[in-house]
Every structure is written in C-alpha cells, then in structure tokens.
DUF5673 domain-containing protein (Pseudoalteromonas luteoviolacea H33), 141 residues
Amino acid sequence: MKTINLQINWYLYSIQLVLLVLLCVVLLSLGFVTVAKVLVALGSALTMFSLIAGIWGKKYVHIDKAGFSHHNGLNIHYLHGDEIAALKATKVLNVYVISVELKANKQVSFPYWLASFEEIQKAAKLFSCPVIGLTQSQVKA
C-alpha cells in the first residue's frame, strides 16, 4: 500500500485567523490597544508559521502499513499499527478530521489535517480496526 498523506485543514487555519481578527476588534473597542497588537501579532505569526511549515512539508501526517508518523515541526512521532485500537472520524464540511484511539486508552488527534472517506477506510482496513463516527449512510451513491 502506498502512503496516505493527509491534507492541510484550511478551514481550521481560516477560522483561527478570523477569530484573531475578532479578538483584535473586541480588545480595541475595550481600549486594550497594546494587548490587542501583541496578541494578534503573536497569534497570526504562530498560525502562519504552522501553515507554512505544513505547506513546505516540515509538518505532516503520513499513514502507511507501519502506522501513523507525524512531524509537528520539531520532532517526528510514531503511532505503531499494532497500538491502534480505533480511528475516529469527525466530518467537517465534505472531509474528515482523524483521531487515533490507542490500546493504551490514549487518543491522538490531528485537527490541522484532513482525510477523505476513502483514505480513512483504507487506513482502518490496513490496521484492522473500527472507524468511529463514520457510517455507510454518509457514502454518496
């Protein structure tokens, strides 16, 4: 099986930037000009740094027969296939955000990454685990 590369969650980055603008407007209307400038500058810089790292491939989530490998910009982490108990899919518009439930009763979420229905099905089949939150009724005929 080829590696499944998850896509950047543009929705979340967009919402994050919109919330920063709204926070700035609220803080400015309350007279906290310096606080607004600092929070918006730091928040937008961190958001853009994270987004650019994802675009350049410095942050990623890969799924293959060995399990999940993800790079957060600083370190590479692995979730081995034999540790995976279930995949959890949360639908956001027409795509899905994946969370991995481990046999050690831990959950690892990837909110900044998206997968298609088919990719989640392939991953679940690969690890022989159930998918929570994904039903056949969501499949278009």
Summary: Confidence is low (pLDDT under 50) at residues 137-141. The radius of gyration is 18 Å. The chain has one domain: 1-141.
